[in-house]
Amino acid sequence: MIEVEDTISYYTNGFLSHNCEWINSGESSIDDALYEIMEQQVCDPMVTLDDGCYKVWEEAQKGRIYAAGVDTAEGVGKDSSVVQMLDITDPAEVRQVAVYRNNKISPMEFSNKVYNILRNYGSPLALVERNNCGAQVVDRLAHDMGYPKLVSYGNKAAHRKNRMQGMIAHTNTKHKGVINMRYWMNDLRSVIMRDAETLEELRSFVRYPNGTWKARQGCHDDLVMALMYGYYVLDNDICEQYFEIIEKDDTGRPKIIEPLDFGVSLFEDPTSIYTDNEVTGGNPDLNPIYWGMSNGEEDMGDDYYDLLEQGYTPL
Q1: Which residues pair with 279 in a beta bridge?
Q2: In 3-state terms, the chain is what percent helix, strand and coil (to 5)?
Q3: CA dist., res. 125 & res. 259, Å (int)
Q4: 196 within 8 A of 91, measured Cβ to Cβ
Q5: What is this structure's pTM?
Q6: Least crowded by CB within 10 Å, which of 150, 168, 171, 259?
Q7: Do 121 and 209 have their domain in common?
């Protein structure tokens, strides 16, 4: 019998084995050519909010179609809670318009943040992972806030007897979601990437020997998973429920879409001082608004007249 020390390392089939731990050294979710294309698209956001956690590259526009992918973490400084906002008006040119990422926000507080971001973009379809901490976010959005456009998917694949709201993360649904995302990104080169952190996570998002996709050891994939859920809206099983597919491409996937819901979408300005306390990028000096009651201008203090000089008009 030949004994081999536990610490030996050797290469087999393109993978490094060390202490029976397999580390992928091969296929990344994006190839070198696509990485270079996306690297040229990356740019600074138009505005940054919430101490840099919320980055906006494009403001919401009426008539555009948006979808949000949401991945929730515990908020203890490790994995991040993420919102990826995509403009899917033209599936052949999906635009990354906003990203929220925070690893220190609790699921309950994150629920409020997700709701506000969705309102910034006219209450679009939201694909929120339900597993673990995500269940609290889905349930709060659905029951406490009455958010009307939560996509539910994956119950059958996860063998759930009762239909649960949100995106059920299961081996089958994750694999299908990654394949779907890679089709739009790698095959069609459809995505307009803006966020450097998302791009770097895509670079380290690899396929392991067992066929699963996840981040390399020591890396994170929260931004990628939220992006994957956002892209899931273009999967036929979901797309056919919420959109009229005017035309399909050669593979049978949606090429031209129109929303089935023609109701009024209300947009909230994400830079409004009513919804965010801090704005960076652009002009951060927001003048205060004076609230008060009096019997007339003679009872108003100096602050009142200072505001008049700044151009404010009393209500």
Answers
A1: 49
A2: 30, 20, 50
A3: 10
A4: no
A5: 0.76
A6: 171
A7: yes
Tell me which residue range forms the domain holding 95. Answer: 26-280
Residue type, position 178, single letter: V
At 261, is the pLDDT very low, low, confident or very high (cuts 50, 70, 90)? Answer: low
pLDDT for res 12: 37
117-147 pLDDT per residue, tens: 999 999 999 999 998 899 999 999 999 999 9
**Amino acid letter for position 160:** R
**How confident is the model over 184-204, as pLDDT tens digits?**
999 999 999 999 999 999 999
* Same domain? 150 vs 214: yes
Helix/strand number for the chain, H first, E second: 8, 15
Q: How many residues does the chain have?
A: 315
CA geometry: angle at 133 spanning 81 and 147, to 5°?
Answer: 80
Q: Same domain, yes or no, for 33 and 60? A: yes
- Both 257 and 310 in one domain: the answer is no
Q: What's the Rg (C-alpha) of the chain?
A: 23
Same domain? 182 vs 296: no
Same structural domain, 47 and 117:
yes
